[in-house]
């Protein structure tokens, strides 16, 4: 080992390499086991492999080196099955850091564990060493940080079943670089009580991105946990179609209250989406496309596409309309794909390079027509217009996938993650909607999901 003692909070998101220097993943957690006497023993570390959602367990005997900026593991010896936490195992970032306890001294001082070290003994065994503990303030001043102290494991009695909420600082730090879909999976692995503690400390925008990757039943648990003001703030940050799907699952009184608390522009979009049937183009669309006038230059259009808050699917095209330029717009004129913009000089007007081959769909068009149009023309995004030929929204390919995937697709994907390499334990059975695309039979619309917009994942 390159280090016989290391504080684990500093390892959050550290790159993990094999002995040959190839990067194999990121460090996520330390797995320990409590003992009847003495500090917990360290079983190994949890590594998130590149390209996989689930972490893999690496026993400490296969951890070859721990440095300040990298870990080296004998990757060829690691069991490639996804990690499943057993009853006696404890995750440091999830179950120990940020938790409080009482110091075993006369004053009965309370402290919060912000970090801990793991140490290797002469026999090569690893265990928890010192704890870095934040203590209560000793003065009434609001300036400066509260005092801290290094203590041994035996000097504190942890609250294993705390009556008050436990901060989630270290958990969020360890998962700060995760994609929203992966963080959604990590949150759903936590007990509900701990999950709610974590989401309370997440920023609204980050939480909104994560909620969009969850099934609506899981979304409801979180949204209904918040007070109405916080819930409305989070809904403001969600894509309008996702917010509409979620609000549509609430009772009428709660829906009305949340819409009143949301930003007026966001609430207006959601109200419009709630008017459409779930299995129609209007029920699938989002109201946040990039809309420009015909006089907009290619350079100006590319600036709009480059904005970081634009979803990748929505950044594949700009939509050209007459005034006004917010849905519902003036008359729809056409669209220009991103690749086409790159072929023309910056001063060219987008109105002169419209792609008019892509026909918009009407808000009342059935979902089967939407799927056919996207598949037939290899589209990523499809415009939606109303009776007056005004643009009211667009449908992206991920909107359609959310709509047609079955409720249990996440569970089946997780089952495949747990299977042996090269085998598949569960297939995703698509509903009759997609079968009708292949057979040309549009009569199977009855198999579409009843909830507006389908399942989000």
UniProtKB/TrEMBL annotation:
PROSITE patterns: CBS
Biased composition regions of type Polar residues, renumbered to the chain: 433-457
Coiled coil: none
InterPro entries noted in UniProt: CBS_dom (IPR000644), CBS_dom_sf (IPR046342), Mg_transptr_MgtE_intracell_dom (IPR006668), MgtE_N_sf (IPR038076), MgtE_transporter (IPR006669), SH3_actinomycetes (IPR058838)
Top-level taxonomic group: Bacteria
Annotated region (Disordered), positions in chain: 422-457
Cytoplasm recorded as keyword: no
Any Pfam family matching the protein: MgtE_N
CBS domain ranges (all copies): 285-352, 354-412
Alphabetic keyword roster: CBS domain
The protein's name: Magnesium transporter MgtE N-terminal domain-containing protein
Naturally occurring in which organism (per UniProt): Gulosibacter bifidus
């Amino acid at each position: 080992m390159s280090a016989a003692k290391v504080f684990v909070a500093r390892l959050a998101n550290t790159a993990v390499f094999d002995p040959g220097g190839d990067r194999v993943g990121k460090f996520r957690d330390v797995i320990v086991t409590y003992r009847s006497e003495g500090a917990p023993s360290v079983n190994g570390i949890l590594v998130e492999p590149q390209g996989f959602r689930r972490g893999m367990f690496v026993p400490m005997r296969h951890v070859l080196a721990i440095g300040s900026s990298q870990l080296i593991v004998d990757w060829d010896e690691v069991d490639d099955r996804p990690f499943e936490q057993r009853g006696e195992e404890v995750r440091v970032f999830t179950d120990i850091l940020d938790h409080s306890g009482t110091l075993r001294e006369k004053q009965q001082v309370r402290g919060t564990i912000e970090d801990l070290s793991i140490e290797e003994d002469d026999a090569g065994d690893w265990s928890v060493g010192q704890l870095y503990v934040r203590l209560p303030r000793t003065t009434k001043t609001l300036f400066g940080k509260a005092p801290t102290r290094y203590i041994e494991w035996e000097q504190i009695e942890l609250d294993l079943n705390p009556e008050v909420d436990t901060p989630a600082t270290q958990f969020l730090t360890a998962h700060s670089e995760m994609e929203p879909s992966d963080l959604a999976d990590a949150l759903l692995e936590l007990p509900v009580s701990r999950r709610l503690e974590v989401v309370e400390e997440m920023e609204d925008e980050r939480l909104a991105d994560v909620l969009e990757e969850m099934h609506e039943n899981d979304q409801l648990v979180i949204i209904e946990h918040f007070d109405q003001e916080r819930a409305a703030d989070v809904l403001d940050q969600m894509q309008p179609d996702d917010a509409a799907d979620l609000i549509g699952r609430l009772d009428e009184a709660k829906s009305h209250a949340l819409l009143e608390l949301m930003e007026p522009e966001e609430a207006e979009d959601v109200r419009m989406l709630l008017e459409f049937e779930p299995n129609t183009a209007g029920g699938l669309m989002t109201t946040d496309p990039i809309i420009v006038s015909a006089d907009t230059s290619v350079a100006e259009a590319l600036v709009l596409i480059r904005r970081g808050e634009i979803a990748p699917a929505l950044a594949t095209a700009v939509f050209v309309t007459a005034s006004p330029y917010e849905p519902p717009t003036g008359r729809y004129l056409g669209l220009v794909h991103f690749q086409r913009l790159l072929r023309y000089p910056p001063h060219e007007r987008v109105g002169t390079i419209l792609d008019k081959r892509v026909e918009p769909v009407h808000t009342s068009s059935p979902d089967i027509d939407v799927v056919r149009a996207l598949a037939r023309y290899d589209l990523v995004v499809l415009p939606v217009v109303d009776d007056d030929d005004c643009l009211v929204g667009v449908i992206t390919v991920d909107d359609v996938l959310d709509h047609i995937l079955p409720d249990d697709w996440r569970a089946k994907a997780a089952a495949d993650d747990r299977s042996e390499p090269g085998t598949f334990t569960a297939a995703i059975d698509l509903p009759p909607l997609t079968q009708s695309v292949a057979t040309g039979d549009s009569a199977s619309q009855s198999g579409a999901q009843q909830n507006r917009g389908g399942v989000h994942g």
